[in-house]
Amino acid sequence: MSLRALDRRSWVFLGLLFIIVVAVPLANLATAPGSWAHLPSFAVSLFGKYLCYALLAVALDLVWGYCGILSLGHGAFFALGGYAMGMHLMREIGPRGVYGDPVLPDFMVFLNWDHLPWFWHGFDMFWFALAMTMIVPGVLAFVFGWLAFRSRVTGVYLSIITQALTYALMLAFFRNEMGFGGNNGLTDFKDVLGFDLQSDATRAGLFVLSGLALALGFILCRVIVTSKAGKVLVAVRDAESRTRFLGYRVESYKLFVFTVSAMLAGLAGALYTPQVGIINPSEFSPANSIEIVIMVALGGRGTLVGAALGAIVVGAANTLLTGWFPDFWLFVLGGLFVAVTLFMPRGILGVFDRGGPVRPGAPAGLALRRKEA
Amino acid sequence: MTRLHRLIILAVLCLGITSTASTAAVADEISLREIAAGFVDANFSGVSETAQALAETGDPAAAVILQALREGRLHWMKSDEALLIADRDGREMRLFDLFSEEPAGTARRRDLSKVTVNNAIRNQVDGLIGGLTLLSPDPEARRSAVTAVFERRDPAFLETLDQAIEQEEDARLRALMEEARAAILLADDGAPLEARLAAVATIEARGGQDALSTLAAALSEDAPPALVDAAAEARAAVEARLKMWGYAQNVWQGLSLGSVLLLAAIGLAITFGVMGVINMAHGELVMLGAYTTFFVQEIIRTSAPGLFEWSLLIALPLAFLVSGGVGVLIERGVVRWLYGRPLETLLATWGISLILQQTVRTIFGPNNREVGNPDWMSGAMHLGELTITYNRLWIIVFALAVFALLLLVLRHTPIGLQMRAVTQNRAMAADMGVRTGWVDAMTFGLGAGVAGLAGVALSQIDNVSPNLGQSYIVDSFMVVVFGGAGNLWGALAGAFTLGIANKFLEPVAGAVLAKILVLVFIILFIQKRPRGLFAVRGRAVEA
Amino acid sequence: MSPGPAPRATSALLYLDGVSKSFDGFRAINGLSFIVEPGELHAVIGPNGAGKTTMMDIVTGKTKPDEGTVLWDGRVDLAQIDEAGSARLGIGRKFQKPTVFETHSVEDNLLLALNADRGVFATLFATLSAAQATRIDDLLALVRLEDRRHTLAGGLSHGQKQWLEIGMLLAQDPKLLLVDEPAAGMTDDETMRTAQLLRDIAGDHAVVVVEHDMAFVQALDCCVTVLHQGTVLADGSLAHVSAVPAVIDVYLGR
């Protein structure tokens, strides 16, 4: 089944991804520092971070590009996954923290807490934590989606309440009482599964894992969108009402795809935390989530490959420009939002796509009629 | 305050007003001197007792001595132990007579010894002076005197107080004096029970946090049970009343927050509600209004400082024009190409918001800018237990004024009529000769201009920084979504409901959690009523 | 959803009795009673605002009636059911403005409409059976779109979209078809062919057609119900209702 789901472009994408996943660690590990081919270690983690964003963007494209749900809160699912992994990494520090408490993370000792909050239990086990990186965002997405889709909150309204969701979570995680390190978040990680997070080999390993997760997430999304269920999703996007009159329970489809997408976002976050070395409440900020949207839009929504491409382009531009001209980056990012929506509504890949009709305005599922709004 | 005190005391002395005091035991100068001699070489308790004894004479002249004691000017000559008032002047001390305050030569510092006081004595003396100035002709002096007496609760003042009550013509001051008398009686175990029960009633009537602490602290351990019970009942009554005031305070603060939300959201209600356009740069248009205010004040500061009181009124039209102008540019340049595609509009205007933020950051720097409050925006007034600050009050008034003005514009002006026509049926409006493009630009400009007005108001209560807009964008969208798009009344109801809900939750849950709870509530609410409180219903909308 | 062995209240396939619905004080439907027998072909005419679309909305679960009874197959209360539920009971609806899935191919449009399990996981793992492929071929032939099989529906002409939507309706294999102004935007020839098609369908399926075009209604040659201000003004053959003075006043006479 999965082979049929992959078209030529998918194979090109997976091939390129494979080359990167092999070449980047090689350039770091198998070359001497100072050689022209040597890639510094920080760059490996940096590229790993882009791959995590790419997976997040693919997940967002699944709901936005194919089902017309513009989530402005996908950063929340990403951050929750990141926090779940961060909790495991905090537990793994053990007695090596500043205060040397064998169980409590430093920030809890600092707050004079004498025992671990109930929701921190179990996170000392890697597999439990890994499961939670997807279960927690999945459950949140399911509950939120169940409420929202059942009562047919759509279009801009849905976008705004997803933004409110991530905003509320951001405020919540800023509170020390929540038990997630407040403002500072979770950091000072030492190792994962016994591998030192500072070592080049671990960084390379995490990079490869990120590439693998991106590949698997991409294939999963391809399988979904090429199945008959995927055709239903597009039908929902283009003519939601018509789909209902054909007998499809639109809310079930939305709920399914929203939950799957949130779980992928959580996985992306889980890989992000150890590579960046910190997870804090600013990951929940609405601006982060909306930046993911522009990645998808730039690459071309409804293409999956484009989403990954957009994430890498925007991520790299962010790194380079904030390094060279820090004041310039927001102008570029802002300009990107305007330019893409005005001049490239189908994104980079859309420019190459032919054969489809030029969309009349936008897919009907995306457009609220003005009178209605 | 102390300087004022002294002036008043002098005035009392010079005018000889106290000679009208019929029954007060006016001790002569000699007996005052005898009592005051107790200050010489006394320890703190000796000083305290002497001060008390002086005050009990009721002689206004004693107030001058006490004032000098309070200010550390009371000295005695080591040679003859005579009390004097002395001020330091270089290496010498200038001397004044204790009663006439006439200059009395100079002395070397080492020949004098100061009567030293500690804080406990200072507090005591304040109360004593209060007792002695209860009869002052200046109502302000009497007011501060009675406050001091109320806090001291010294039975020694009772006599003076009774006299003062008898003379007092200002009803409010008399009420204060009666309350002070009640507080003294309550604490005085020597007073008859009936008088003390009456005192409880008086204090209960006074109400407030002070009454509560008076009732709680005044009773000694051997107070009669009837009095203890009465006091407990009175406390319960006062507490109940305080609770009501607490609610009132919550409502007030909620209205205040609601007016801020209304200001931030009302422009959005036009662009989102009337035009169906999501303007994520709305917060930045508010920010531009705030920076316009800053800019106006800077100009005034450097070239016309006299106009400062008018700075906000000058800034209002300018902010409207600046934000409105930027709004028109946004509409003509970007938004108009995206009509019918709300999600794309959302993304494009978000991009514009980033650009505006960074532009302001580049020009004005990333830090908070100081925007001053004119005098009429500063200060506060009291209404029972409520504290009402003028800036909040004016912002509520302003928000409602802007709201009313917008209603008028939309209902009763040609441009308002055209706006509604275009909203309801674009094609038909165009056929009838309405320039729909122009109307779109004007509508968007109006919403943006109102955002600028909001910025002027918010500059008075919030930090003016490039991030100003960001902090309001989620809240103001919540107001519009909650209230129901397409309806200004919805924005009004939404803003005040959310503001008041927030302020009632805050004492229970804390500020951040309250905000989260409100957001969660809206998320749940929108499930039930996806189109808000004031939704337009009907077949066309449900389609 | 399964009605169970409850006794049938009526033999009619669709039974509306005393149904009313108001929008903000405007009574779109006012005490409407209307019956469709299995296999019957029935035309509904009436001026704009007569309540035709609202009636269809109520039958398909899109709008809940304020009062009155709406029974399906004598057993199921349609007021309790949403759009997808009504489709699953066997009610197919074609809109006045042709709505097809524009970014799907003609073939995929029919595939989505085919009568099959509509659950998420069923469709996730669904494969096209030989019978389904044949059915799609037949439908393509019926609506004369064989050579447009792989064209995206957004690229079809208006008339072709109408035909595609009729094809989708047939693919659902419903017991009742609600057809809203199928002839709009069609040539005379196409109009006649559509009338013929609907006559052919009737018998196996009940069909309710809402139409303005009198020539089309005449071609249908069936029972006609005239709606006005949310109630039934007259019903019977076209010749019969055309002679009712009230109908002439409000509708035909103008």
UniProtKB/TrEMBL annotation, chain A:
Give the Gene Ontology MF terms in alphabetical order: branched-chain amino acid transmembrane transporter activity
| Swiss-Prot/TrEMBL keywords | Cell membrane, Membrane, Transmembrane, Transmembrane helix
Specify whether Membrane is a keyword of the entry.
yes
A Pfam family matched by this chain, by name?
BPD_transp_2
Query: CDD domains this protein is in?
Result: TM_PBP1_LivM_like (cd06581)
Topology versus the membrane: Multi-pass membrane protein
Subcellular location field: Cell membrane
Q: Where are the transmembrane segments?
A: 12-30, 36-56, 63-85, 125-149, 156-174, 204-225, 252-272, 292-316, 328-349
Entry GO terms, CC: plasma membrane
Q: Which domain of life is it from?
A: Bacteria
Keyword match Magnesium: no
The UniProt entry lists the main location of this chain as membrane
InterPro entries linked: ABC_transp_permease (IPR001851), ABC_transptr_urea_perm_UrtC (IPR017778), LivM-like (IPR043428)
Q: Which NCBIfam families match?
A: urea_trans_UrtC
This chain belongs to which protein, by name? Urea transport system permease protein
Annotated source species: Roseospira visakhapatnamensis
UniProtKB/TrEMBL annotation, chain B:
Organism superkingdom: Bacteria
In the UniProt record, does the keyword Nuclease occur? no
Question: What InterPro entries does its record include?
Answer: ABC_transp_permease (IPR001851), ABC_UrtB_bac (IPR017779), BCAA_transport_permease (IPR052157)
Membrane spanning stretches? 251-278, 285-304, 310-330, 342-360, 393-410, 477-501, 507-526
Membrane topology per record:
Multi-pass membrane protein
Which UniProt keyword terms apply here? Amino-acid transport, Cell membrane, Membrane, Signal, Transmembrane, Transmembrane helix, Transport
- GO terms for cellular component: plasma membrane
User: Where does the record place it?
Assistant: Cell membrane
Q: What is its main location?
A: membrane
Which GO MF terms does the UniProt record name?
transmembrane transporter activity
Q: Give the signal peptide, or none.
A: 1-24
GO biological process terms on file: amino acid transport
What the record says about family reads: Belongs to the binding-protein-dependent transport system permease family. LivHM subfamily.
What is the species of this protein? Roseospira visakhapatnamensis
- Name listed for the protein in its UniProt record: Urea transport system permease protein
Looking up CDD domains in the UniProt record yields:
TM_PBP1_LivH_like (cd06582)
Q: Does the keyword Ribonucleoprotein apply?
A: no
From TrEMBL, chain C:
Q: Keywords of this protein's UniProt record, alphabetized?
A: ATP-binding, Nucleotide-binding, Transport
CC terms in the record's Gene Ontology section = plasma membrane
Gene3D superfamilies found in the cross-reference section? P-loop containing nucleotide triphosphate hydrolases (3.40.50.300)
**InterPro entries in the cross-refs:** AAA+_ATPase, ABC_AA/LPS_Transport, ABC_transporter-like_ATP-bd, ABC_transptr_urea_ATP-bd_UrtD, P-loop_NTPase
User: Is the keyword Metal-binding assigned to this protein?
Assistant: no
What SUPFAM superfamilies does this protein's entry cite? Answer: P-loop containing nucleoside triphosphate hydrolases (SSF52540)
Q: Where is the ABC transporter domain?
A: 14-254
Return one GO MF term.
ATP hydrolysis activity
The reply on keyword Transport is yes
Q: What is this protein called?
A: Urea transport system ATP-binding protein
Record organism: Roseospira visakhapatnamensis
Taxonomic classification: Bacteria, Pseudomonadati, Pseudomonadota, Alphaproteobacteria, Rhodospirillales
